């Protein structure tokens, strides 16, 4: 029975991985279908061009044959004297005149097919291929965003399962202790505290999982029901219009030459009139139903015994949830307005592109018609060629603008879809929490004793400080990270927006005296973030030893992610274990911050820009400006691949970063439960959390 939750976790994990693999395969198939569609359109244009050229040859040969036939019999009539059958001769003259006219008509059809109709098809092929390539790039970016959402969902799901397993284990130990009532009251109290704390962590993890679950489903709906259609429209724009213009011109030429084939031409006219971009797109989707159908909705998978299936704003986290809801509501309003503006720009760009394509095709037909006239018309046609070249260049710029607007609109609307899903869940949770609780006060104990250090905290050597103080993670690092974890993961511009210099200096001096000034939740968030950066920036020796900077920057340029992570790990593993422990703790925290980039706008690269100069330094003669892009790229890679680069807990004992933190420090017995998730007792003063409910 103790191993049963783990077996359930393995089975659920396999099922979730199977779903993720199916979605990934489906996305790959979509790109293949789009490539196949491009090949089909290109082949259709090429086949139609070859058909017109061959038809031109046949029509020209037929016209020459008719002309020779008419000339032969005309010469015979001229050599003969008029006979008794004048009516017959007149019939011959009418017939020969009609033959000569038919020869001229077929010659005109031949010239039209060889030049006037084939050139627009060649330009249409170029436009179609460029649009398809750009559309595929946009589709790939959207798919990357979709895979990122599913990856975040799996990460949140695993975190939730982990904490719920810990909660069940702690609850079982509590029940065992309660059975042994004699002399175990203190032990029961400690275990009750632990159960409550783990339950709070489990609630936070479940909330993140549910939010990511809703965002993933919203992203799937948005991508499959809206984005795919928009991408296909982007790829096909102008294709049907160009074909329509070419085939209509062909119909006009044929109808002048062959009135007796009106029945067949009417059928072709009906087919040309039926060219419909929307209908073709729907037919493509219907033909490849398995590739483009919406996958099954992600369903909530609670851990065994967990009855909570909705986002909850309990007393301990209600304030945090309300703050997050307000920030999310503000961002949603702004992004919604931006999306509406992007939609208007997209429609304007689409109209401009269609107008440009139509105008270019019309001018090409006009120039070809002028070229078939006299010499004066040929001169006018040659003078209009620069104008055609300029229009073609402008058309390509319009194509690029349209594709950029499609990308902007789809990306912003996808972000709005995710934020709206989270917003709706948070709104319900906050309303319920407000109705159940009328007042909640959090008071943090400020009776923390001061600790005097024998080594400098700021501007000193971190390794010497750790060895002298016994703190595996320096107090300033752990306290600031805990404060940001509890209050600032959703704060827009965290680490990018500077705090007050006076407050930063005040916090620095308090830490230097051995105090914990961020125990007060009223501290300025940006100032706390500034102190954390200041600590690493002012260290006597940078966090990454200076003699390894060149090697790290070299390995960061490796394209293969697996090989790059292995090489970086080999260098970092050579550092002193206390330094590696701090690195592992810091980069796990930075990765956690980047997972909320939809709300705090701090992607891994933005975090790398903020922390890169504080963590790495080059040699004295190195150009800092030249090295900065390489340092940013290195720090970004470490943030994204921190789990592969830093040693695991089994390889290196020491504190690890927890995503779901609480204000209390663990005071459970040594060796009881998952001790690797908790700080060691006695290395820093406790910070108690007191909750009053009225």
UniProtKB/TrEMBL annotation:
The keyword Coiled coil appears for this protein: yes
PROSITE patterns listed in its UniProt record: F_BAR, RHOGAP
Comp. bias regions, Low complexity: 370-387
Chain intervals for the UniProt region annotation (Disordered): 370-390
Sequence ranges assigned to domain F-BAR in this UniProt record: 21-280
Alphabetical GO biological process terms: signal transduction
Coiled-coil intervals: 160-194
Keywords for this protein: Coiled coil
UniProt-listed InterPro entries: AH/BAR_dom_sf, F_BAR_dom, FCH_dom, Rho_GTPase_activation_prot, RhoGAP_dom, SLIT-ROBO_RhoGAP
Keyword Repeat tagged: no
All residue ranges annotated as the Rho-GAP domain in the record: 460-646
Gene3D superfamilies reported for this sequence: Arfaptin homology (AH) domain/BAR domain, Rho GTPase activation protein
UniProt protein name: Rho GTPase activating protein 4a
Organism expressing this protein natively: Hucho hucho (huchen)
């Amino acid at each position: 029975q103790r191993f049963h939750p783990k077996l359930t976790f393995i089975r659920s994990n396999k099922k979730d991985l199977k779903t993720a693999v199916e979605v990934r395969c489906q996305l790959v198939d979509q790109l293949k279908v789009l490539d196949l569609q491009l090949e089909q359109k290109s082949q259709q244009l090429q086949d139609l061009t070859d058909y017109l050229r061959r038809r031109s040859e046949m029509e020209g040969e037929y016209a020459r044959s008719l002309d020779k036939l008419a000339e032969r019999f005309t010469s015979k009539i001229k050599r003969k004297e008029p006979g008794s059958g004048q009516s017959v001769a007149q019939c011959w003259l009418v017939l020969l005149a009609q033959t000569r006219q038919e020869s001229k008509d077929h010659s005109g059809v031949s010239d039209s097919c060889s030049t006037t109709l084939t050139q627009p098809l060649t330009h249409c092929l170029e436009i179609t291929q460029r649009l398809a390539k750009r559309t595929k790039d946009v589709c790939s970016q959207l798919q990357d965003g979709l895979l990122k959402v599913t990856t975040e969902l799996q990460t949140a799901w695993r975190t939730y399962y982990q904490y719920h397993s810990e909660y069940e284990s702690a609850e079982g130990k509590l029940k065992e202790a309660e059975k042994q009532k004699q002399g175990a009251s203190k032990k029961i109290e400690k275990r009750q505290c632990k159960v409550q704390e783990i339950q709070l962590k489990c609630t936070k993890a479940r909330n993140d999982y549910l939010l990511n679950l809703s965002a993933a489903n919203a992203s799937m709906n948005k991508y499959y029901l809206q984005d795919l259609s928009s991408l296909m429209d982007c790829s096909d724009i102008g294709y049907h219009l160009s074909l329509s213009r070419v085939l209509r011109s062909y119909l006009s030429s044929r109808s002048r030459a062959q009135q007796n084939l009106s029945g067949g031409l009417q059928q072709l006219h009906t087919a040309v009139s039926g060219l419909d971009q929307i209908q073709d797109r729907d037919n493509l989707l219907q033909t490849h139903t398995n590739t483009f159908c919406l996958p099954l909705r992600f369903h909530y998978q609670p851990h065994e015994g967990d009855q909570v299936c909705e986002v909850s704003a309990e007393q301990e986290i209600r304030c945090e949830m309300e703050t997050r809801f307000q920030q999310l509501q503000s961002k949603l309003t702004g992004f919604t307005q931006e999306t509406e503006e992007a939609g208007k720009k997209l429609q304007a760009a689409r109209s401009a592109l269609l107008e440009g394509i139509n105008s270019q095709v019309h001018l090409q037909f006009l120039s070809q018609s002028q070229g078939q006239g006299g010499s004066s018309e040929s001169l006018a046609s040659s003078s209009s060629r620069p104008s055609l070249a300029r229009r073609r260049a402008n058309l390509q710029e319009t194509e690029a603008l349209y594709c950029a607007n499609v990308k902007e609109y789809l990306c912003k609307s996808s972000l709005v879809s995710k934020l709206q899903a989270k917003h709706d869940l948070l709104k319900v949770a906050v309303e319920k929490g407000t109705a159940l609780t009328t007042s909640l006060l959090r008071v943090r104990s400020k009776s923390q004793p001061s600790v005097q250090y024998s080594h400098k905290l700021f501007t000193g050597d971190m390794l010497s400080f750790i060895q002298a103080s016994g703190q595996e993670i320096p107090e300033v690092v752990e306290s600031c990270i805990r404060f940001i974890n509890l209050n600032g993961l959703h704060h827009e511009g965290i680490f990018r927006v500077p705090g007050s210099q006076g407050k930063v200096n005040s916090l620095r001096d308090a830490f230097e005296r051995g105090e914990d000034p961020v125990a007060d939740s009223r501290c300025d968030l940006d100032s706390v973030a500034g102190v954390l950066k200041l600590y690493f920036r002012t260290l006597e020796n940078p966090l990454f030893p200076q003699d390894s900077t060149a090697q790290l920057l070299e390995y960061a340029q490796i394209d293969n992610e697996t090989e790059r992570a292995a090489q970086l790990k080999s260098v970092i593993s050579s550092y002193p274990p206390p330094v590696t422990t701090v690195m592992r703790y810091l980069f796990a925290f930075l990765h956690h911050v980047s997972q909320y980039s939809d709300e705090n706008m701090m992607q891994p690269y933005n975090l790398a820009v903020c922390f890169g100069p504080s963590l790495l330094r080059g040699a004295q003669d190195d150009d800092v400006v030249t090295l900065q892009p390489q340092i940013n790229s290195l720090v970004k890679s470490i943030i994204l691949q921190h789990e592969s680069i830093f040693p695991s807990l089994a390889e290196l004992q020491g504190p690890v970063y927890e995503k779901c933190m609480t204000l209390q420090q663990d005071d459970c017995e040594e060796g009881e439960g998952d001790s690797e998730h908790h700080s060691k007792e006695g290395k820093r003063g406790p910070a108690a959390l007191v909750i009053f409910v009225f």
